[in-house]
Write a structure and sequence with these properties.
Layout (H helix, E strand, L loop, with lengths): L6 H10 L3 H14 L10 H9 L7 H13 L5 H4 L7 H4 L7 H13 L1 H8 L13 H9 L12 H21 L5 H16 L6 H24 L3 H17 L3 H17 L3 H11 L3 H4 L3 H17 L3 H16 L16 H15 L2 H14 L5 H17 L3 H15 L6 H14 L8 H17 L1
Helix pairs in contact: 2-3, 2-4, 7-8, 7-11, 7-13, 10-11, 10-12, 11-12, 12-13, 12-14, 13-14, 14-15, 14-17, 15-17, 17-18, 17-19, 18-19, 19-20, 20-21, 21-22, 21-23, 22-23, 22-24, 23-24
Length: about 450
């Protein structure tokens, strides 16, 4: 079989001004820094073979991208090198070292390409990937300004457009759930937004604003995947969002994303990591520079993480501080992030989860009920999740028929069209909790169980 010479790679090496030996040296340096010891013995013969048409395996394409990106001061993707990345772990091997634009391009292709999509759907949530980089990384990311690779001039109007679409997708997520529209969001992020990030900006403020807008859109894609129980996909988008926010030099947005990662870790039972992430979300300017409403959300998730780690007194103190922060939120304080809807009902929901984890069932019941009473119709998906939790607390305290009434209300909303893995899980949990009561011939239990079974049959 005659291999076709990789002209793309040859041209990039010529642009970099590197010999084969110099390329190998730069490659090995990146591999060494990333602790990928299996890739630190690449020689000039390997580079010559890759130029001649041999395809490198494993993490090698990403390592070479990273080396050339540093040299050329712009993001180089595997496609530009004439390579394909065979699997998602190739990027994960480099972790935080991968440039955000490379990560965005590769994740977008994997998420949207039918053949590559199985790499995400078959992946698992990685606790190892939750190890955060050190302070040097954050500083370096904020200071790096890659050279534009597109001639397109990007202005404030383009930033506003991304923000407006983020807001629109976020409202859909709140009403219909994360399973509705996320692919369209991911496509927009991969195409238009990626082009914006590679364009020319009139000044650093516009550049940072665009990277912040892209970070929030990536965060939203992650949150929607999380809500739809696509946990590995969600984690990858959260990490991507954090990289983009760091590149923008935006600590409050970084805290917002770290809070979401903590929320996911807690829901999946990784309590120690959840506490670490929530603590990181409160660190320094992530908390200090945030608006009162944002600080309240960071604080209440931190409270839940403390409660889950059996630090009950600290959790209660964190709850009180979060309440104070939300109380200080006033009309006229601009909320910079369009995915941010934290209000009284949200505080009550998270407070209830914290009290539940502290063992205070009655306190949790009061807060879940308060959340249900105060949440507006625009937040139907979260409303259903709250109703699911409230019903679980009611049945745990002996209120079987009361729980059935609560869950029946939740099913009413879901049958109107909510696409949410978390909401669906609430129905699964509902049936499990009703199981001990099926033989007691309680009419409300029989009716609700039948409705829940029919719902699950229709959505599966």
């Amino acid at each position: 079989m005659v291999r076709e010479r990789n002209e793309r790679l040859a041209v990039l090496l010529q642009e970099a001004g590197w010999s084969r030996a110099q390329t190998a040296s730069a490659f090995n340096r990146v591999a060494q820094e990333s602790n990928l010891l299996d890739y630190t013995c690449i020689g000039r013969s390997h580079i010559s073979m890759w130029v001649a048409g041999t395809k490198p395996s494993g993490a090698a394409p990403i390592i070479l991208c990273q080396a050339l990106s540093r040299r050329l001061k712009r993001a180089i993707t595997p496609d530009e090198l004439g390579f394909t990345v065979p699997n998602a772990p190739a990027q994960e091997a480099l972790g935080w070292c991968v440039d955000p634009l490379i990560a965005l391009t590769d994740l977008g292709r994997t998420d949207l390409d039918t053949e590559r999509r199985s790499l995400l759907t078959g992946a698992v949530y990685s606790v190892a990937a939750l190890a955060l980089p050190d302070e040097v990384w954050w500083k370096t990311m904020a200071e790096e300004h890659p050279t534009p690779t597109k001639h397109q001039r990007v202005g404030r109007g383009d930033v506003a457009t991304v923000q407006e679409l983020t807001y629109a997708f976020s409202r859909v997520d709140q009403r219909r759930g994360g399973g509705h529209g996320r692919k369209a969001l991911a496509q927009y992020l991969r195409s238009d937004v990626t082009t914006f990030l590679q364009g020319t900006f009139p000044n650093e403020q516009v550049r940072n604003n665009m990277f912040s807008a892209a970070a929030e859109l990536a965060y939203l894609s992650g949150w929607m995947a999380f809500d739809n129980n696509e946990q590995a996909t969600a984690q990858k988008y959260f990490v991507l969002a954090l990289k983009l926010a760091a590149r923008a030099g935006n600590p409050p947005l970084s805290g917002h994303i770290l809070r979401a990662m903590a929320h996911q870790a807690l829901d999946l039972g990784h309590l120690k990591k959840g506490l670490e992430l929530s603590t990181a979300s409160m660190h320094g300017q992530r908390y200090a520079s945030a608006t009162p409403r944002e600080r309240a959300l960071l604080g209440v998730v931190h409270a839940r993480a403390l409660a889950s780690s059996d630090q009950k007194q600290s959790a209660v103190q964190a709850l009180l501080k979060a309440e104070d922060d939300l109380t200080s939120a006033r009309e006229g304080i601009e909320e910079p992030h369009r995915t941010f809807f934290f209000a009284e009902a949200s505080l009550a929901h998270e407070t209830a989860c914290t009290l539940r984890d502290c063992g205070d069932r009655q306190g949790a019941l009061r807060q879940f009920r308060h959340s249900v009473r105060t949440r507006g119709d625009a937040f139907r998906r979260t409303h259903v999740v709250t109703l699911g939790y409230l019903g679980a607390m009611q049945i745990a305290t002996g209120g079987v028929e009361e729980a059935c009434a609560t869950w029946s209300t939740a099913l009413d909303a879901m049958e109107e069209g909510i696409y949410s893995g978390r909401a669906r899980q609430a129905v699964v949990d509902m049936r499990n909790l009703l199981s001990p009561y099926r033989r007691r011939r309680i009419p409300a239990v029989a009716e609700l169980d039948a409705r829940a079974a029919a719902y699950l049959t229709n959505v599966d």
